[in-house]
């Protein structure tokens, strides 16, 4: 939104805050603080991608504030719930922008709500860093002020297919959830497969609450699949791995960031050895057990007693570090345009939790392109296999 | 007529609603629009459950069908909103008519479960009929404009919702006072008795389901434009809880209560944003408090204390001296157990 | 071979549904209502057991006993809060009150356990390695679930048939007024019904958790499936609950195995719609005479 129309809005809404000259260009900024909004599911099943990353954002802000803030301004986080519901996400972002008057937003859990809210945020011109939603439509075609540090679904799909091919798979099959989360990945996955000329031998489906995968396993076994791309949450994936093991079906199991903790996954499957051929992508560099994230584990577990640091927390940690860096680079005379420009100009910026550097540009707002392959030998430690670079 | 009579209060509310766009920010306008849309849903639900006594769980499905119908007719056939919107509502009404046939044989919890199953089935269609519905990813609806009227889209849409809500509110008021409305109540209070009075059960139930479906469908069409986006999770079981909560909070068997309930629930949900992360706990608690301490809904309280609130209540009087109502609402247990 | 695996998986999944359905039927048998928080009570008891067993290291038998006791208390609380004050009002209020409780339980579980990981694992009582029975591989815990469901059914069948409390429960369900007249404290009977219904859910959760994993939102899908199973079986029949659960499970497995796995989720609902339209009082429900 241009400055002119923001002024017009100020006049129209008779907001007193607008009359103070220092704030004319930058909502949510005072001499001592910057208001940052976040939205995602605080309640309902989507909380993994909402509440937990927000906790990550919060500990980063705490750390920055303890060190004196950014150019003397403390970061203040305003949380809004979207219940993973598109209508509620629009309400949440409208509130953040026109009522709370936040300076920037870091958030976006479930994909569909974030996609629905895109228009509101784009129109307002508020700088927005997506921390967890992976739907391509959020960043493609790019909106001037919206950047994603989640590996978008196209990037992950390409990585999954490349990985299967590089492991010598001949008969690739897909088992997927077709809810909003699964569908956001399933469609680009199919497109990638088509583009690479790969014909899949079977295409099966599970629901997030599935308790049995015998039928799916039998069908995949009949099709003779040797690599299975799993577009599943950890629960159905664990059920699938368990039943595949039961039926002595042992193909390569290829996961994605939804199942980003192989150690937890081994527990969830619960059958020794059933995860021996499981490989997955981590959007973040370390599994939560890695000593290298010690600092953040301590921060999360002190601030939220009873919680343990999860990969979901790390989504938020990374996104918050990226946004904070952009605000820092925008300088003491803060405007939203400067932050947007700083985000677009981020080149090879290294963040504590991501496997590769963050690079955005004017034309490509998918800033995280280094999906990291990890695995766990049964009973052994988690091993990093290396990052796939996708263009 | 008393100063706080129903008509005066409603006129004041209408006046407030008319000037809202001039004073509200875009967030408040959006919430205002949602209140109007949910008023339609609550009235539709109330006609079916509060008046005709049919414990159905398919309202969210009708809401979805209206939204998908309106959106998809625009996307696939390039129809203008002005045609797609009423057509979507009529499709929802037709589906409502269709599910009234099983309702003829079922009552109480069995009707509840079969309509719940239907709602789940509809969700599954939204998710899996990908060629038509675009699956779980949903789709963006075409932008509509209110040219040549000098209003922006959100304001225009708000006034459209207001116009529709007022018209359908008046229609519902007249309906429940008519022969049809009395037939609804007769069916609710006893199907056999109603039949013996010459009420055509099939026709009456079909009308109740059809009209309720139409209200939900209209709401769906408006909702698709308010969001500019249609996807399955907007029409899931949480919506059923919302609609039911609205009429119980406002008052079963009262059209004005539907308005009240919709307004309160939507505003409460928004105010609950203040309790960050504890919404579901507080929302559950509020539901309990309303149900436990405000039986008959707010409208019964208003009717008791405010003179001139002359709406004839169609709610059945609470039966305090009887054993629990079993599966069938509004049917005394003694009768049910009798041979 | 394929068919036997499919049928077996239908039976083992169905046993999970049957466990939930039993709790629903026990409450319905005495009170004539459906507790919409049943799924959440199942979930919450599961988390309680997890806390006792995994966090505090309490042994398995004691965990089971404590979870059942905790479930009983939760059930009695549900009765006192939602059912007693509302039993004479209307069904919709009652449904909403139990839905309110469901929201609260889900929210509280999320606050307490939601930060501990996405899906919590509960160690199985049996060996995790699959075993061979004839030509078929099966996971021992699935047999435990099946056995548990049958055992619970048998216990309650005996309870309703041979104990005073069981007979009082049935008398109350048949005609509460008459039951009061012959001196039955119906309010206690209702509390007992909700208590035992939830205690069954707790036992079910301990048995099922190793297979289903624990997460705050697991209750709803189990409730829907359990509700479906209970209705198929006629809502008041204990063997009906088991039969209904197995039928829903088998329908899902057959649709998934022979048609398409996308049909698994919806096949249960299609069966319900058909059965209810053709046989409105379920498979084993008492035929109700049309009231005049």
From TrEMBL, chain A:
GO terms for biological process: amino acid transport. Pfam families: Peripla_BP_6. Residues 33-367 form the Leucine-binding protein domain. Keywords: Amino-acid transport, Signal, Transport. Residues 1-24 form the signal peptide. Belongs to the leucine-binding protein family. PANTHER family: BLR6548 PROTEIN. This is Amino acid/amide ABC transporter substrate-binding protein (HAAT family).
TrEMBL record, chain B:
Residues 314-339 are annotated as: Disordered. It is a multi-pass membrane protein. Residues 328-339 have a biased composition (Low complexity). Residues 314-323 have a biased composition (Basic and acidic residues). Keywords: Cell membrane, Membrane, Transmembrane, Transmembrane helix. One of its GO terms (molecular function) is branched-chain amino acid transmembrane transporter activity. The chain crosses the membrane at residues 34-53, 60-77, 83-101, 108-127, 155-172, 206-226, 246-269, 281-302. It is found in: Cell membrane. It holds the Pfam family BPD_transp_2. GO terms for cellular component: plasma membrane. This is Amino acid/amide ABC transporter membrane protein 2 (HAAT family).
Automatic annotation (TrEMBL), chain C:
The chain crosses the membrane at residues 6-26, 33-52, 58-77, 89-113, 133-160, 189-212, 266-286. It is a multi-pass membrane protein. Its main location: membrane. GO terms for molecular function: transmembrane transporter activity. One of its GO terms (cellular component) is plasma membrane. Keywords: Amino-acid transport, Cell membrane, Membrane, Transmembrane, Transmembrane helix, Transport. The keyword Cell membrane applies. Belongs to the binding-protein-dependent transport system permease family. LivHM subfamily. This is Amino acid/amide ABC transporter membrane protein 1 (HAAT family). It comes from Enterovirga rhinocerotis. The lineage of its organism: Bacteria, Pseudomonadati, Pseudomonadota, Alphaproteobacteria, Hyphomicrobiales.
